[in-house]
Amino acid sequence: MPIRSKINDMRVFFASGAKGSFNQNFLMRIMLLLFVCVFWCKAALAETLKTKNFIVDITRNCPEGEVVCNNVSYTGTRLRNGESIKLTGRTVYRVCADKITPCQFLGYEFRNGDYRYFVTESGTLKIYKQKKLLLEESGSWTNQ
What we know:
alpha+beta
């Protein structure tokens, strides 16, 4: 049987809606639901910090529900000239009295050689060279 004939048979089978076959409307609904869930969940893990001089996009690349994430993306763009930098970092937490359990989310940390970028939970961008603070700017968070 030629391949074209098999494809046409499959179209007729799915379009028929006969008992024992998948209903095309049902499949379309499931696909739409999956599409919405995938993109909605991804958006829930992305945030943007806007300060006076920078736009910082932060994306957690860990499964939703994981508290500690060591795969966080940072894209920082300087508003003055559009220059940007992309880094990978981690979430930072204060630990509880047991010295193990994460208690309070503090922010995100990213490293680039001697430079350390720290974005606080409250919306402050801090850039250090070794231990010297080079920049500190507060801004506001928006969800993407």
